[in-house]
Design a protein that fits this description.
Layout: H1 2-14, H2 18-22, H3 30-35, H4 38-41, H5 69-81, H6 88-118, H7 122-137, H8 142-146, H9 151-173, H10 176-192, H11 198-209, H12 228-250, H13 271-290, H14 314-332, H15 339-353, H16 378-395, H17 404-429, H18 433-443, H19 448-460, H20 464-477, H21 482-494, H22 498-511, H23 516-528, H24 532-545, H25 550-562, H26 566-579, H27 584-596, H28 600-613, H29 618-630, H30 634-648, H31 654-666, H32 670-683, H33 688-699
Helix pairs in contact: 1-6, 1-7, 6-7, 6-9, 6-15, 7-16, 7-17, 9-10, 9-11, 10-12, 11-12, 11-15, 13-14, 15-16, 16-17, 18-19, 19-20, 20-21, 21-22, 21-23, 22-23, 23-24, 23-25, 24-25, 25-26, 26-27, 27-28, 27-29, 28-29, 29-30, 30-31, 31-32, 31-33, 32-33
Length: about 700
């Protein structure tokens, strides 16, 4: 029977995520935490302990202070095992495996909680297994499992339950070694995610609630140390203080700085507005666990408007939550309810509430409104509450139309079917960003960030009209959205709508003057309008606010070239290459400029460095081939031309074949030159250079 239960739990924990594992991409926050995070691909094992989860210095004022080095190291392990590649399949499969391990630990922890109070009766074991099944398929977990950055929550939960199991054994065996091991595991859990510290709070409640009361002396059993709990608390409580203080020191003794759009309630000027909105957010979190229909990847920027008046209809929902809490508290004082049931209620709600406290805004404001992944751990308490309640309903004969056990089985099967179906459906939404962001529109149509992300994906898919409309809608919903203004201006620039593009870029700079991308894009727009001095000033301003800005130096070089200032252009491109050695466009323009101005020896000196940095770059091979050709090194030029054409593949253009034809023309391999000129004209019948050179061959009777 045990192996059947193990197989069933394993099956349902994998089932909702199998499709999304093998047909997935990096989505949403994965880009910042993995793709752009140098700690994931770095060879250093030390830097990760000085940086936050996003790769920024933890002591910096720009850091969100999310210190999760062990989670980042798990990403690096994926990177190494994937052959030093960022393969989203490997990352997502790892997430699912971690979720499976967590489900097993949750099952075992439920057995400890229920068994300790029910002496491992069949009823207790069944409730533990059924609750773990519900936990495995709960749709609220999809963000944590399918979103790779959610691994922080999963691994935090894994170590949370390991710490709890160690603490349980410390109580049972009176072992202080296991107590210290539990505290150490709590510290490890904090290095996966900050909420790991809450396990010690739950352990304290568990220790107090399960503490047996000695009513009389029994000479037939070993004496019970009635002060054992007090002794453990004298160790655990200072440990909590030390761990929290250590975390504060790691943050540099400063709190993270959030914006009003991240958590509007935290910036309310009224205590009533702030507390009412927080309470409504708590209600939403509970609602998402009870009925996970409205799931969204982001709940900021107007998705949950603040409560600004006492007669807001949402106050009724808050009252319902408070009424429920009051009824639960009343039940705990009801003398007709047995002590074991009361203890289970306390433990279940503790497992729900305590891990949620860091995200509750009670002790400190957080940088989000609602984040489904933070409910991964609290949902363990919720699932236990559901099964305990369902079990009580069956025992009390609430469903008298059929035997209690059968009714319980049918209700549970129905609930698991509904939850697993919803989890499967939701996991499809995390397959790629297009599906994810589109799903967000249905839940949070007033969220400017959702429209912004829809626009970014649409732009990448060349759905220009959709992207433009989405950017405009994002700006309409949030008139200070300078990132959307910058991106919209950039799109309009590509459509040669320079006046409108300039308007949006200047609007972005009005809201954030020190925004380097907007300054750079403004410089490009001004350059296209032949306003060279203004363009140069814009580029210099961008570099002022971001010294290490290779793309801006590249565009500055293009501007100098347009102004016929050759040496400043070379210097700008060299600086771009210094900051980003693999900057293909800067290398290509630099080599081409030196080639076109007759500085062939200077270009030849740079060629080995360019090829060493970009051995698979077709434009670089093409530029180097042109230099070798003009120097009369025909064999070297031929090799690089052929390599360039191979790398270009189906994207090779008429000019590429024409230049190789010119090489053969000079090399007096006229028939090869003719073949290449003809092929170039096949690609582009109007390509003047190929027509002219082919005419010269025929005019001089060389073929």
């Amino acid at each position: 029977m045990f192996f059947f239960k193990l197989f069933a739990l394993s099956f349902v924990s994998f089932l909702p995520y199998l499709h999304s594992c093998f047909y997935s991409e990096f989505v949403f926050d994965d880009a910042e935490a993995i793709i752009k995070n140098k700690d994931v691909t770095s060879n250093s094992l030390i830097d990760v302990f000085y940086h936050d989860f996003w790769g920024n210095k933890i002591a910096s004022n720009l850091s969100h202070k999310s210190y999760r080095p062990l989670t980042t190291l798990s990403f690096r392990l994926n990177y190494i095992l994937s052959g030093y590649e960022l393969n989203p399949i490997h990352f997502k499969v790892t997430n699912v495996l971690c979720h499976w391990v967590c489900c097993l630990l949750v099952w075992y922890s439920y057995k400890l909680i229920l068994g300790g109070l029910h002496s491992y009766t069949k009823e207790a074991l069944d409730v533990a297994w059924h609750a773990s099944i519900l936990f495995a398929v709960h749709p609220i977990h999809v963000e944590a499992v399918s979103g790779i950055v959610g691994r922080a929550d999963i691994l935090c939960a894994v170590t949370f339950f390991i710490s709890f199991i160690l603490y349980h054994n410390a109580i049972k065996e009176g072992s202080y070694w296991k107590l210290f091991a539990s505290i150490i595991m709590a510290a490890v859990s904090m290095l996966f995610k900050e909420t790991g510290i809450t396990v010690l709070g739950f352990c304290i409640v568990y220790d107090i609630v399960t503490q047996p009361k000695v009513t009389k002396i029994d000479y037939h059993t070993p004496p019970h140390d009635k002060f054992a709990t007090v002794k453990r608390l004298f160790i655990v409580v200072p440990s909590i203080v030390i761990l929290i203080y250590g975390r504060w020191l790691i943050m540099g003794g400063t709190k993270p700085e959030f914006k009003a759009v991240d958590n509007p309630a935290a910036f309310c000027d009224s205590t009533f507005k702030r507390l009412a909105t927080y309470n409504y957010i708590h209600f939403l979190n509970m609602l998402l666990m009870i009925w996970p229909e409205w799931l969204c990847f982001d709940w900021s920027m107007g998705c949950v408007p603040t409560i600004n008046k006492q007669f807001d209809p949402r106050v009724i929902l808050i009252s319902c939550l408070h009424l429920y809490a009051f009824l639960v508290a009343t039940c705990l004082f009801n003398q007709k309810i047995c002590k074991k049931s009361k203890k289970l209620v306390v433990l279940s709600f503790s497992l729900l509430v305590i891990p949620f406290l860091p995200a509750s805004n009670i002790f400190f404001p957080v940088g989000f409104v609602v984040a489904e992944r933070v409910l991964y751990l609290p949902s363990a308490g919720f699932c236990l509450i559901v099964l305990l309640g369902l079990n009580k309903l069956m025992i009390r004969g609430m469903f008298t139309f059929q035997p209690g056990e059968l009714a319980k089985f049918k209700l549970l099967a129905f609930l698991i079917l509904i939850f697993s179906s919803r989890a499967l459906e939701r996991s499809y939404g995390w397959v790629n960003e297009h599906a994810l962001f589109r799903s967000g529109l249905a839940v949070c149509p007033l969220n400017a960030k959702v429209h912004y992300n829809v626009a970014k994906v649409a732009d990448a898919r060349n759905e220009t009209d959709v992207a433009l409309a989405a950017y405009r809608r994002a700006i309409e919903l949030y008139p200070e959205y300078y990132q959307a203004m910058n991106n919209l201006g950039n799109m309009l620039k590509h459509q040669n709508k320079y006046s409108e593009a300039e308007e949006y870029l200047r609007m972005a700079l009005e809201h954030k003057h020190d925004f380097p991308p907007a300054w750079m894009n403004l410089g490009i727009v001004l350059a296209h309008q032949k306003r060279y001095q203004e363009s140069q000033d814009a580029y210099i301003t961008a570099i002022k606010y971001r010294h290490n800005y290779p793309d801006c130096f590249y565009n500055l070089g293009n501007l100098f070239l347009e102004m016929n200032q050759t040496e400043p252009a070379v210097a700008a491109w060299r600086q771009a290459i210094k900051l980003k050695p693999k900057h293909t466009l800067a290398w290509t323009n630099l080599l081409s400029l030196l080639d076109n101005t007759g500085q062939l020896e200077r270009a030849l000196q740079l060629a080995p460095e360019a090829l060493a940095q970009l051995p698979q770059s077709a434009p670089v091979h093409f530029a180097v081939a042109n230099v070798y050709g003009k120097l009369g090194r025909f064999e070297d030029a031929e090799a690089h031309f052929e390599r360039a054409l191979t790398l270009f593949g189906k994207h090779a253009q008429a000019i590429h074949y024409t230049n190789l034809g010119v090489l053969y023309h000079r090399w007096k391999k006229y028939h090869l030159a003719e073949e290449l000129y003809l092929y170039a004209l096949k690609l582009d019948p109007m390509f003047k250079s190929a027509k002219t050179n082919l005419g010269l061959l025929r005019k001089n009777n060389l073929i």
